[in-house]
Structures are given as structure tokens and as C-alpha cells.
Task: structure prediction
Amino acid sequence: MSWLPRGFLHISLMTPGPCRDSVLQRGPHKSAAEEFSKFIVEDMFDYVQMGYWVVLPYASVRHLPNLPLAPAGVVPQRERRPRPIIDYSFYNTNAACLPYAPLQAMQFGTALPRLLERLVYCNRAYGPPIMAKIDLADGYYRVPLSSAAALALAVLLPSDLPHDPTPLVALPLALPMGWAHSPPYFCAFTETVTDLTNQATLSLHPENLLLKHTQCTLEPMATDFHPTAVILGEDNIPPLTHADIYIDDFMLMAQCPYQMPLLNTLLNTLDRVFHDPAPTNHRQIVSASKLNKGDATFSTQKRILGWDIDTYFMTLSLPAHRLEGMSELIHSILHRK
Result:
């Protein structure tokens, strides 16, 4: 089923926001105002250049109606750049939004069981399934907002001028991180891409320009399973060709030689659904850094949704750093009541 909305997304608020002058006095979250102030200003500048945000002085927008001014924050991440986030719950913006978002589009809670079931119930005659991942660049920012929604989701940023401490105000032109309705609206788009990919005739699409850049770490493909591998599929089912989605992480499962047509279909469908009007400063839809890391290269071994999956042995295991984290957590509570 597809839930693709049409046009620009609007927001309806049940109650007005707090007094904006008092909000201004509080300012952004401490993580944005002090710890990562330089980072969030530079990061926002990049997104302004790409057309995802507009940043203005507070004096330019103070008179505008329906301007709740949510505080900006920054979340550190392991082995990755920090992630900017907006606290739309602080002044009840999330709670005040009317529940129009398509919550049924959020099906990522069962993504891993769905994936594992497809792998286990494949046809042994076609050999071990191979897997690939496609990650979107600037995921939420691919879905545009209306001008009224941009005002309702305005954000306070730290000032970029040392002699003027007045915060800046950023207006999102696309779905922002931190708004409670961003996940269901965004999932409506990515679930639609997945549905269209699985319903398409794979041979009908022209070769996508990115296709030749995806298989950057080719490895020999196993033609049969390990003797201990457990396969429950029937002999009369067709070879596996399936796409699934976890928010913005597309997961592809296929058996040779159908993997490249499946990947090509997904890439073409992404271009159709998230089509950018030309000219644009947006980055390409598919994350170039993840392509360079080999995420889109088909293999029998892949780290998907935090698990290491091996379709030759048909095993599922946790990465070493997750095992260490679990061990530390368990040991820390062993002697507690």
C-alpha cells in the first residue's frame, strides 16, 4: 500500500505558542548555545545553501503570527558527526499539532523480522541470497513544507556574531528532525518507494546513472549454502527479489542474477518520487559516502539494522562493539537491587 502525500505538507496547531519574547530570553538548548554553537551555525549554513532552511534575524520575524520558536539542540554520535535536532516538545508544538499524519506508514518496527523471514524462506536452488543497502542523503529534507508550516516549526539558533548575542531564527522548508510528525510523513514517501519497487517489472527501467558506481567492492558469489545452513523455502517458489525499508535505509535481498535489475528499479523509483526540480543545490538523493563504503555492493555478508547477517551460513550475530556494550550494561546491574 502507498501513502504518498501530494503537494506541500501543512500543519494545523490546536493552541498558540508561548510568548515569543520569553522564549527568546531562554534561547537555544545548551548543547547548541555552548558546546556545539560553531558546529550548528556552520551546519545550518550548509543547509541554507542547499535550500532546506532560511535563517533570519529575530527582528525580521518577531511580528509574524504563529511563531512558537523551538530551541535547537545537538546530539553527539559514535564515530559520526554530531546530529542537530530541534526540541519541538519544549513549547508543546508536537502536542498542539492535529493528528493528520499517516501513522500507519511507520512499519519499521517489524523490518528485521520481515527481512529474516524472506531470507530463510528462499528457494535453495538459486543459491544464497545477497544483500545490499541504499541510504538517502538528507532524508527528511526530501519532503517539502508549506510556508505556514515553516512558520509553525521555526527554530532558535545561537547568534553567529560575537558582538550581538540575539539568537537567529531558522525556518525549515522541509521536514525537520525533532517534529513528532516528521517520521510518519517521511515514511509515507519511503514506504511508497519500496512498494513501487516491489510491484514493478524489473526489466522495464533504463539503467540508472548511479548503478555502475554501486558495486565497488565486488567479491566472489557463493553458489550454494553451507551444509549447516537452515533453509525452509519450497522448491517451487521463484528466486528472491525484494526491497524493504527502515525509515530511510532501503534493504535489498535477491538471488543471482536478479540483484542488479532490483537495484536499478529502486534507484529509478527514488528519482521519480524524490525528483528535484532543476536547477537545484540539493545533494544527490542516494548518500555518496555510503556508496563509497560499499553499502550498495551485493554480498552474502552485510551489517543491517545493527546486526551482522551471513546468508551463506545463515547466521545472525551482534557486532563486537554492541556485545561489549551489552556486557558492560549487564555487569553494571549484577550487584544492584
